[in-house]
């Protein structure tokens, strides 16, 4: 099979899907069938520790098929970036291609996967990024994130008003990233992104594809089935020793940080789903009654199940929005494999997946049709909207439309309506309540305009 594909570019196989759909299982099976190697694209699996909660491949599975990008960063490192990941993983992919092996990327961290598929990242100047002992980098972004959000946004507005207008003032990470790009390259983030989009193969979502032959497999399941499966997986994690893993990690890495009041659940492995949900239980265990400890434990378990289900929905939403609803020159085809019935795995998942990858290897069209979804109306994901009534800034047209129909906004709208006695003004506002039109017309100035 590999010999037949020697004259053409081997495919980069990417397995997408929500947590709990069996991505790791399929990756292992494809790796064994095709002689490929697996590259994890999970931002939490890169760290040492918390093997159960981050659902890492077992030592036995890693012995069967070579896995990369797992457990190589010290858990106390909090500044390992997507650029670091992209650079290391890209080098691995090139090495595998040169050895005529198929790279199989599997994971659920969206921006990690995007960094391997598209030319979407801006490279900072290497001279300003000093390597850390664990392989991460000490960069300007970390320093900037220590500043107040509004101050960061004010600075960005001064140097790159276009990008500032697309970012929420409270989104410190993205605002700091844009400032970092400007400081380290001398060009604004918006200028560099525009340049990427104008390159051959580029489009509204970024630059062109990084590799010419991506084979994208998406595992999906009925939501009710997936929810039940995720709850069962949390129970299985508990049975496998999750609590002891969390206790040990807390003792080794988090207790001292808490004593120094410098614990941080927004960066590094400490933001992992599962660790922060058991925070109250971990810090009070042995210091409160057994009954209270049990209540906190059950609270943590239910929180973990809830946040896991929500994360699964977020992952599926990303696949639909990034791949299926925004077709263009830089959106590769996606082949869907339903995993609702695990008893049909061989027939409905493994064999079709092998056929699809084999078709890519042979340079022919798979018999399986790629998934196609109706394209949604054009919308701007980065347009900034200001709701004067609610005193909020909303980023994105979809989020804006949801906001102006929300209960909280309609409450403020009616409150504003009642504060004006002019019948014509009231009629105009009432119309907006019923139709959900743009609420910016409800500013004080536009209330007067409604009368004319």
Automatic annotation (TrEMBL):
Keyword Cytoplasm annotated: yes
E.C. numbers: 2.5.1.75
Reactions accelerated catalytically: adenosine(37) in tRNA + dimethylallyl diphosphate = N(6)-dimethylallyladenosine(37) in tRNA + diphosphate
GO MF terms, alphabetically ordered: ATP binding; tRNA dimethylallyltransferase activity; zinc ion binding
Entry's localization field: Cytoplasm; Mitochondrion
Function in brief: Catalyzes the transfer of a dimethylallyl group onto the adenine at position 37 of both cytosolic and mitochondrial tRNAs, leading to the formation of N6-(dimethylallyl)adenosine (i6A37). Mediates modification of a limited subset of tRNAs: tRNA(Ser)(AGA), tRNA(Ser)(CGA), tRNA(Ser)(UGA), as well as partial modification of the selenocysteine tRNA(Ser)(UCA). TRIT1 is therefore required for selenoprotein expression.
Name of the protein: tRNA dimethylallyltransferase
């Amino acid at each position: 099979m590999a010999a037949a594909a020697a004259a053409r570019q081997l495919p980069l196989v990417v397995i997408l899907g929500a947590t709990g759909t069996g991505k790791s299982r399929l990756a292992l099976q494809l790796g064994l069938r095709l002689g490929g190697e697996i590259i994890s694209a999970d931002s939490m699996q890169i760290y040492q520790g918390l093997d159960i909660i981050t659902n890492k491949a077992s030592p036995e599975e890693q012995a069967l098929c070579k896995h990369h990008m797992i457990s190589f960063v010290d858990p106390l490192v909090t500044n390992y970036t997507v650029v670091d990941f992209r650079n290391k993983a890209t080098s691995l992919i090139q090495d595998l291609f040169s050895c005529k092996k198929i790279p199989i990327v599997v994971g659920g961290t969206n921006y990690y996967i995007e960094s391997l598929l598209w030319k979407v990242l801006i490279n900072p100047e290497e001279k300003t990024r000093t390597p850390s002992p664990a392989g991460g980098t000490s960069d300007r972004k970390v320093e900037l994130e220590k500043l107040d959000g509004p101050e960061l946004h004010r600075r960005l507005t001064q140097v790159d008003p276009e990008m500032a207008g697309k970012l929420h003032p409270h989104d410190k990470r993205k605002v700091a990233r844009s400032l970092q790009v400007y400081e380290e390259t001398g060009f604004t983030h918006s200028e560099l992104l525009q340049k990427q989009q104008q390159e051959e193969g580029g489009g509204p979502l970024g630059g062109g594809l990084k590799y010419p032959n991506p084979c994208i497999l998406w595992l999906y399941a009925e939501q009710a089935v997936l929810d039940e499966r995720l709850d069962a997986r949390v129970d299985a994690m508990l049975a496998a020793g999750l609590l002891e893993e969390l206790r040990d990690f807390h003792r080794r890495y988090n207790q001292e940080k808490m004593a120094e009041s410098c614990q941080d659940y927004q960066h590094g492995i400490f933001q992992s789903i599962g660790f922060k949900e058991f925070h109250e239980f971990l810090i009070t265990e042995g210091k409160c009654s057994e009954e209270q400890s049990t209540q906190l434990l059950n609270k943590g378990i239910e929180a973990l199940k809830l946040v896991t289900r929500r994360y699964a929905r977020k992952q599926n939403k990303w696949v639909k929005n990034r791949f299926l609803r925004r077709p263009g020159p830089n959106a590769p085809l996606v082949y869907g494999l339903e995993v609702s019935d695990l008893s049909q795995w061989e027939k409905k998942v493994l064999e079709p997946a092998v056929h699809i990858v084999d078709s890519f290897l042979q340079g022919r069209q798979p018999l399986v049709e790629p998934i196609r979804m109706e394209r949604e109306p054009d919308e701007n994901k980065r347009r900034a909207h200001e709701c004067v009534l609610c005193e909020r800034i909303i980023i994105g047209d979809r989020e804006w439309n949801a906001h102006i129909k929300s209960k909280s906004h309609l409450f403020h709208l009616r409150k504003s309506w009642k504060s004006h006695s002019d019948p014509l003004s009231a009629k105009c506002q009432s119309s907006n309540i019923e139709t959900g039109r743009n609420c910016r017309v409800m500013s004080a100035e536009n209330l007067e305009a409604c009368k004319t």
